[in-house]
Amino acid sequence: MKWITRERPKIDRIACPWLIKRFIDNNAEIIYVPFHDVIKKSKELDAIPFDVPDVEFTHYNSKCTFDYFVKKYKIKDPAIHTIAIIVRGADTDRYDLALQSSGLWAISAGLSHNYKDDLELLEQGMILYDALYSWAKYYQEEKHSQQPENLMLNVFKTYFKNKPGTKKKIPKWAQELKEIIQDHIDTNLSLKEISKSLQVNPSYLSREFSKYFEDLSFGDYLRKHRIEKAINLMRSPQYSLTKIAYLTGFSDQSHFTRIFKKHTGQNPSVFRKKLKKGNIRPKS
Q1: DSSP string covering 120-135
Q2: Which of 95, 114, 139 is the last residue of a domain?
Q3: Same domain? 253 vs 195
Q4: Euclidean distance between CA atoms 16 and 25, whole angstroms
Q5: What is d(CA 272, CA 1) in angstroms, rounded to the nearest whole number?
Q6: How many Cα atoms occupy the beta-carbon half-sphere of 84 within 13 Å?
Q7: Residues of the domain holding 200
Q8: For 140-169, what is each residue's pLDDT tens digit?
Q9: Residue 47 in contact with residue 2, Cβ under 8 Å?
């Protein structure tokens, strides 16, 4: 079988191919293409699209694409179910789901930075998930150290995690909204339209949004994450600033330049030059 998804994978788009090759079809071919080409190329190449909107193999509610593969193919291996929770936490920024989720994200982001070729990145990711599987199957009950300071830290974390009023439970609509924003950061998102798909009153959504999204309004949160994505894209010489503006959902390059300067204090072209030299001083 051929499977196709969007380029520059990090979590789901590495974890799912690993699962496919190890538990579904070890001869599977994985294809990475630009986001906007996934559906078109899937038809041309007779490949199954995954981890993009509006296809079968994608996110559902709070579950990620890896979860759907496990459910679809009825994989019963307990180690896979352990990994599924870790992947879900890393892919949706819900690090409370598993202690290992934040570590998986950190390593995956580092691999993505170090390997620019997606298939080479997948090759390294296969090694990573093979190791994670062995841990989940044979070693997850073992501890590297039980030093008193580690025990004290665990007690401290548990106390504050369970202390009343220290952390609000994230509602389902907020989790789904975060996924929508992540998957459609390059499109023209409307909170009013999103409220319909979430079946949440738009006035309530607008009023409650900042409580679960870094104390920012919908517009400010969207712009912040578009700028963050733009900075990541700037690290690659293959993207022009015009292309980056398009990929991050800005109406045109002048709009992109204005918002970018407001957030960083520098024009995109100047920022990019300093980024290459490792001399970045964003606006505080």
Answers
A1: HHHHHHHHHHHHHHHI
A2: 139
A3: yes
A4: 12
A5: 40
A6: 20
A7: 172-277
A8: 776 655 444 455 555 555 555 555 554 557
A9: yes
